[in-house]
Design the sequence.
């Protein structure tokens, strides 16, 4: 059985809400060894990291898998402490040699308006 094989391209895989607050941001900055930085806005990497975390909690990747790339497109500034809806869509999948290359697109919206999107690539050993 292949990872996410029950989903078609461009089909929503899951949906959840994200709230990035000061506590999360402070911990994120500490983990990156960044000191003395404050902002009222969510950074693009915080957004992508948090959504990938929630996605992988729902759909854990098999041992030996790799997250290789993450592209992020911010359409407008995102304030902290806002409840953002995140929809994950299977945007591409193909087999190359003994691996499955999967792209998952995250679509972020607030008040029914798309405010950002990101796309991550996962390489999964084919079983």
Sequence:
């Amino acid at each position: 059985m292949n990872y996410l094989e029950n989903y078609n391209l461009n089909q929503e895989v899951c949906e959840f809400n994200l709230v990035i607050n000061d506590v999360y941001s402070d911990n994120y900055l500490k983990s990156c060894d960044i000191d003395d930085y404050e902002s009222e806005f969510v950074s693009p990497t915080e957004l992508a990291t948090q959504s990938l975390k929630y996605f992988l909690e729902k759909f854990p990747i098999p041992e030996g898998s790799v997250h290789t790339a993450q592209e992020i497109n911010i359409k407008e500034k995102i304030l902290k402490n806002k409840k953002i809806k995140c929809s994950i869509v299977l945007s591409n999948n193909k087999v190359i040699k003994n691996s499955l290359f999967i792209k998952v697109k995250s679509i972020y919206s607030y008040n029914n308006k798309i405010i950002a999107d990101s796309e991550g690539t996962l390489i999964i050993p084919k079983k």
Summary: The radius of gyration is 15 Å. The helical segments are 22-31, 44-58. Residues 44-58 form the longest helix (15 residues).
